[in-house]
Amino acid sequence: MAQFVFVEDKRKIVYDVVSLAIIDETAKQTAATVGDHVYLDVLLLHGMAPVGRKCWGLKDHSGNLMKNGKLASKNVNTLIETIRQHSNNKIAHVKLIMPDRPGYCDSDAAPLVRGQRCDNEATTCYSYAQFATDMLTVIEHARTNNDGDDDGTIDNGKKRELIIVGTSSGGPCALSVRNRILSETTSLPNHLFLGTIICSSDCPYSHPQCPQAVTEEDTKDLNGRSIQQYAEEESLKRFRRKSKHGFVTDYLLERSDWGFDLAAVSGDAHAHHSCNRVHMYIGGENDYKSIRLGAQFLKELIGGETRLQILDEEDHFYASRKPELLAKLLVTMISPR
Questions:
Q1: 333 and 274 in contact (C-beta within 8 Å)?
Q2: Which terminal Cβ of the chain has fewer Cβ within 10 Å, N or C?
Q3: pLDDT per residue over 191-244, tens digit each?
Q4: What is the tens place of the pLDDT at every residue in 115-157?
Q5: DSSP secondary structure string, 188-203?
Q6: Does 121 or 278 have the greater pLDDT score?
Q7: Quick one: 133 exposed, middle or buried, by C-beta within 10 A (0-12, 13-18, 19+)?
Q8: How far apart are CA 25 and CA 29, in angstroms?
Q9: Which residues, in sequence order, are CB contacts of 319 under 8 Å at separation 6+?
Q10: Contact 45, 165 (CB under 8 A)
Q11: Global pTM value
Q12: Higher confidence at residue 174 or residue 188?
C-alpha cells in the first residue's frame, strides 16, 4: 500500500516503496566478500508525467510490482535480473522510493511559486530548497516505516547507500536534493550518498549564461504569452487534470532562479558521503530539442565528476519505461567505485 508523510506546512506527500532482494543468502556466501555488498536505496523523481509516480510502472502492493493495476512480473524480473547480471552479485538489496512530487496525483499541491501571485519573500514561496527538504523527509520516513516489507539485512551494521534519479523535470529536483545532501553535514546520517542520475533533464533556462539557442527553443510556444499565462493555460488540458498544480509548479521553478549552486560542493561538508558525481543522459533525435541543446550547458554548470552520455536510440521517456535500462544506469553509478 502507498505510504505518506506530512512535511512542513502540513502538506501530504504520498510515495510507494518497492523492496527487492537481488541476491539470496547462498549467493551472498559465494560472493567475494560479505562486506562488499551494497544495500541500496533509490529515490525516483518523475517528470511532468500526469500519472506521477505511476509513470515508473512500479507500484508496491504486498511486495509485488504493479503496472496499471496488474502484476508486472516481467518488469520486476527484468529489473532484478539486470541488476544481478551487471553488478556481479555486488548489490544485495534495492529499495525503490517513488513519491508523487508536490501537486501530482495523490500528493498535496505546493505553496505558490515566486511570480505566481506570490510576494518576494522567499519564505512564503515554494522553491527547490523546500523541495529538497520535503524529499529528505520522505527518504527518512521510508527508512523508518517499512510497512512490513523486508528491508534487507545489512551486514555488520553497514549503512544503506543512496542514489537519486530524476527524469525530465525531476532532474532539477534531483540536483536540488544533491545540493542539500552535500552542503549539510547532518543530512541523511543513516545513508551514504553515492551520486545523482539525471535523464533528459531540463536546464536553468533563466540563467544569464543560458545559450540563446536554448532559450529560443524553450520559449517558442509562448506566442506572446507570459510564462505564467502559458503554464496556467497548459495546466487546464484534460490529461493534466490530476497533476495541474504540479505542472505549474515545475514549469515556473524551471524558468526561475533555481536558488542553489549546481557546482560540486567542496571542502569537508560532504565528508560523511562517499561521492558527489553526477551521471547525465539524454536521448537521441527523438528527445526534446531544448533538452538536447541545454545538456552541455547544464553539464558545465555542474562541473566536477559530471559525465554526459547520449543514448542515440532513446526518446525522452526511456528511464521510466525501460526497467532494464534503469537497472543498468544504477549499476553504472556503483561500478566505478
A1: no
A2: N
A3: 999 999 999 999 999 999 999 999 999 999 999 999 999 999 999 999 998 999
A4: 555 544 444 589 999 999 999 999 999 988 864 445 555 544 5
A5: -TTEEEEEEEEES---
A6: 278
A7: middle
A8: 6
A9: 165, 167, 199, 200, 281, 325, 326, 329
A10: yes
A11: 0.89
A12: 174
Q: Please tell me the predicted confidence (pLDDT) of residue 121.
A: 47
Q: Say yes or no to pLDDT of 275 above 60.
A: yes
Do 104 and 242 contact (CB within 8 A), yes or no?
A: yes
Task: Produce one character per residue of 196-223: b if its CB has 16 or more CB atoms within 10 Å, e if not.
Answer: bbbbbbbbbbebeebeeebbebbeeeee
8 A C-beta contact, residue 317 and residue 233? no
The grid coordinates of residue 100 equal 508523487
Q: What pLDDT sits at residue 88?
A: 82
Contact 170, 104 (CB under 8 A): no
CB atoms within 10 A of CB 296: 15
Residue with the bigger pLDDT between 6 and 274: it is 6
C-alpha cell at 96: 525503490
> Do 86 and 134 contact (CB within 8 A), yes or no?
no
Return the closest-CA partner of residue 98 out of 187, 3, 196. Answer: 3
CB 329 within 8 A of CB 319: yes
Q: Which has the closest alpha carbon to 168: 80, 246, 72, 265?
A: 246
Amino acid, res. 224 = G
